[in-house]
Amino acid sequence: MKLLSLLAFLPLSLLAEEEGFKPLFNGTDLSGWVPCNVAADTFSVKDGMIVTNGMPIGFMRTEKMYENFIIELDWQHMKDAGNSGVFIWGEGLPAPGVPYARGIEVQILDLGYAKNKGANEWFTTHGDIFPIWGATMTPTGKVAKSGVRSFPSKELTLPSPQWNHYRVECNNGEIKLSVNGELVTTGKDSNPKKGFLCLESEGSECHFKNVRIKELPSTGATEAQTARGYEGFAQLFNGKDMGGWKPAAEGAWTSDGVAFRAVPGAQFAGKNLTSEKEYGDFTLCVDWCVKDKTAIEGAGIVLRGLPGALVGIYNGEIGSGAVGGTAPALKADLEIGKWNRFFITVKGKRVTVELNEKVVAKDVELEGLPARGSIVLTHPGTGVEFQNVFLKEEK
Q: Is-above-0.85 flag for pTM?
């Protein structure tokens, strides 16, 4: 009894050390965290808390990946119906066409969200767990009618601006969520089951504090069970507007911090969007979407500023990924209206293009390609959208 009484009054830092927990947030800055697809001020530190202002929508991840662990944190929404979340075993880039990482989401919603949206059968506000954007998980315990979410057995979260405490135990693909001291939600058979931990920005201010982690022994997650890290990629937009890019004509492009949109209109054809910086060898990630079935000409990404070095977007029979006029080896486009993802690698004068995880052009040589130059998103005069523009410079 005396030992228990002593432990009750130990400082949190000493207790955490004794239990094997380590802080994931030092209380003064964002060391150990990497903003992915957000603005410089989306996440900040104030009064010993991590603060997200919610804009733009996106996420910040840990520097390292984790496999098995217990994470604890306190969270507080600052307005009714606030929305946020913690991503477990997330990837290092957003999933194609969205601002969120592939992984398992532990929902952080204010009680007013369900009231404002209308309570329904596929989400609650008290600690859902569910796979997002290509991840998988078997829901257990109380399962949503949709069959893909684990619902909490009890409603224990407190409304804004009160603080709530989450304890999330993650081991060998199984997740157990305790809300304010009581186990309420579970899931199992997750894939991936090793990856980054992420805090989500989703439109409203949310605070986090006392973020700490205890790592557990590995259970041997394979490469197929490990999230893709995408190390070295940096976003080529500032998360708010077209900063870092030069539009050729006023009104030809819009941006909401998530996507660049070519405004439809024949008068805008050829009024391209050009990066202010120039690049040598690189791998470029670009998501793109064509929403009009009308045939488009001249859409795509120009490499190093050379007009003939176009990686084409074409909603016709041959598909996208032609390089400098060389047709793609196969058609890998998704149907009209779906988001596609290019990975374009430029080394010297040679270009390789991967579209939706299929190589459609390999080591195509482009004569006359300069050693450095801008990246250009072309405007075909119709509505084409780009997002998740990231670049990794190759040394």
A: yes
